[in-house]
């Protein structure tokens, strides 16, 4: 699948953005990924709990007053939230104590990754993205709906767009998981064309499918050249190599730096989430939110305004 490049700002320069007050309170803005979810309040509380758990166990730190807001769009696709009886992968504090495992910068491609790169090369040569179409339609149904249903697509974007404009004067860290990373990228590129994208201190994508050939083609059709959005001062892409959503080219390979020289930093991580009844899910949001790499990103963001305080971990907290 190919398409014409979308519009680019004149002279490849960032457009204007809303001014920021001198002492604005920093905000972490999360957006979830694929599939139905528990009710918004529950999902938001679980994300915040996973972030706090990671900060405590990885860094021995805890924010005095973590400012976190959640962009929820599952209700646009599903009539009723996921019930407790049907939720096989809830948040719960992980067993053990001390820091969660880290990949130590090792980013060796898996067999699945190598095979996909061969297929991607063949798809690019022929111009037919058959495999990606099958994966997206039959395994990533919400992603398929995002592109086939324009009403749903624009409504999901509006949720994030409204939140960004509401908090335009605050330091912002966007934590975008899975399909949420696609929505975030689309919205940031749209807002920069409109000349009203607020500064984003740190964009953290987790388990992002932005390296899939089909997704890259779709993005290029709408936005033009693939690059870091102008408003983004830092972009970290967290990926577990066992997470099938992260197959394909690294984002640093696929997305060029912006005019300020900001490039994507691909951060290999270990997503250690386990289901309560056993089994792993290397794509689960809670696992990504508890990684040392995400904790370090959050702590650095909050430290800029002195919002993180050291705490002593008790045995109960680490259990």
TrEMBL record:
Region (Disordered): 1-24
Protein name: Lecithin:cholesterol acyltransferase
Organism of this sequence: Methylorubrum populi
